[in-house]
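Posting this for the archive.
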Amino acid sequence: MQLNPSSTETRATLAIPTSQAEATYLKFRLDAETPAVMAVHSIQEAFILPARQLTTMPNMPAAVLGLTNRRNRVLWVVDLAQLLGLSVLDATVQSYSLLLIQVGVVQLGLAIQRIEGMVRFAADAIQPPIGQMSALLLPYLQGCALQQQEDKQDVVLVLDAEAIVQAPILNQHSE
């Protein structure tokens, strides 16, 4: 069979299915009011970290909770909501919900309020930030998406893992 670009049969085999135009994200809560997602390709693992396995470090920015050992690697753990200029996680918790992200060779633990599951968004569903966003939050956003939740729509923040790993407060001590 010869390929003819105007052929309906050829177009059908070359068309990208809708499922490939969508990306998969892990949905979580930064705080009680703020849903967010991050592309699953940036997330290595999601787990619960007992607070006793976190070692606080002196003279670090407030958003840096400390260090932990995971699979024989020492990782920094950051309060993601605080890094983004939102609320602060409760310091009296017995455990943290953590996302282990990796960008290039850099791994970082992100403490969040809770994990909510997987979601899919079409590329065109991610829009520029909506409404009044904090100036501290904007550098870490790829955009926002609307998600229907029972009887209301949530504005979900689409976070950029690379921007988070490169946050100025996380890199000020590396020089």
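The chain has one domain: 23-171. The beta strands are 22-31, 34-39, 43-50, 64-70, 73-79, 95-103, 106-112, 114-122, 141-149, 152-159.
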